Amino acid sequence: MIDQLEVDLRPNFGPVKDQGARPTCLSQALSAGHEFVRHSADRLSVEYLHYFSTGGHLWRGSSIASARTALELKGQPEETLCPGFTLDPPTGWKPPPNLHVFRRRSITVSATCANVERAIRETRVPVLGISLPRKFFDPASPWIIAPSDRTYGLHAVVGVGIGLRKGKLTILIRNSWGTSWGDAGHALLTSDFLRRHLIDVIILTEEPA
Amino acid sequence: MTTHRERTLHAASEAARIFDRFAPQGRTSFDIVRAITILGFPIMFRPTKDLLGATVTVGEGARGILVTTKRGLAIQRFTLAHELGHLVLGHKLRFDLLTSDEVRWGPGEPGTQEERGADTFASELLAPRRLVSQVARRQKWDAGNFRDPTIVYQLSLRLGLSFQATCWALARNRLLTEESARRISNETEVNHIKLALASPYELPDSWADVWAVTEADVGLLLECGPNDAVVLSVKDHASAGYLWDVEESDGGFEVVFEKPDITESYGAEASRVLLLRSKAAGNHRLVLRHKRPWSGELAASVEFKVTNMGKEVDGLPRYVKRELLNPASA
Prior knowledge:
Order of helices and strands of chain B: HHEEEHEHHHHHHHEEEEEEEEH
Mean pLDDT of chain A: 95
Number of helices of chain A: 5
Number of helices of chain B: 11
Low-confidence stretches of chain B: 100-106
Mean pLDDT of chain B: 90
Strand content of chain B: 15-25%
Oligomer: heterodimer
Distance between the termini of chain B: 42 Å
Helix content of chain A: 10-25%
Number of strands of chain A: 8
Structural class of chain B: alpha/beta
Largest sheet of chain A: 8 strands, mixed
Shape of chain B: globular
Low-confidence stretches of chain A: none
Largest interface: A-B, 32 and 25 residues
Order of helices and strands of chain A: EHHHEHEEEEEHE
């Protein structure tokens, strides 16, 4: 169990999700962040956001820009109104129309460890775009993931805590690969990891007028 | 007296008859050793100094085939088919001396009528149009692709032929013009193709081949050399936690190099090229699993069958030794 953290926002989140084999990591992370800033127990529809982030190409990944635009302009309804898939949806699937949605603006900041730390301390949970080293796929207790030169694709997670390990800053992240990954779906990234693998940082802000 | 055209047609028709009887099952190359053995002609491999192959008397009225061990498997296979041609076409006892393999199989090359007939037979047996088309269909190659020497090289590996023999087989099957076949055969440095495919991994010897294996090869037997490398392109659902991994097995394959190709969108599949080599010669299952490493949760798996014994060595063929030791495997 990861403990002895200086900041730990895990209690403010719902259960960790498992995206299955779907390419929805960015929508998963944005949805978790969106649920957090809404201070609501309602889960939001990942599939709805992913649909509009990818222009309806549900088997594709999405860019930071398209996902932010989709969240601001299209928003996302409660998950009960538009449930997700663990495998690719049927061909031609579209979200149900005329749903009540929640929209949210966001900003991007420079991808630095200091910006991630500041956002978490201000309880504005950052969505982190990272490249994936091999160790990320099989973390072991005490759940601290080291950087590596070799990487395997891009992924998005949420920064949800801060701690010190051997006198060095670590960021607690929440993943979307289910609770069997890491410590119940969480792990720690060192500042060395972030220097090597952090690519984008998104911070959710206010609701559009 | 028969004409050249009649002799060619006769050789092709005899090759087609034997191909039909022993059509490849679960493999991409014609199993020439098995066919000759079942036809009742003994085969012996010897480290002959100047002899590529020969038809020989092995007893009263019986004939067999002798083939050198001093050439690679592709040359051994063509020589076996060539000598079988002499036997099937009713030629006199033959001794085929070591010559330049590069020019031997070109159309219009000098040679006796019987030599040309045996070459036609061998080419029609090992690379008939239907076998070439079958491999091409699986790999999604069209006739235009055969102008690419890298594709010709990959075809040659699957047919178990030399690069040059494959060029001429494509010309004979009208999948390349004679001019293109001659140009590709003469101007291609096969070693450059190998180096480009394997880079930056250094092949252990210049005889080693590099197989660019695809999904089209799943379930088929790949006949490799002991030092051959296998190049595989995989697409990881990395952002969902899934990676392709090679199943560990004693004496099996190991990844010696990988080239990642990072995508720019979050969630998209990430391409990766794996370069593998075998730890020992033998019959192997090359199994790849697309799974979540921390839990073992499986999304997909593929299996390739590989025998990487390479060329035949001194004595009886491996197929015959196997049959003698384990007749039930026939």
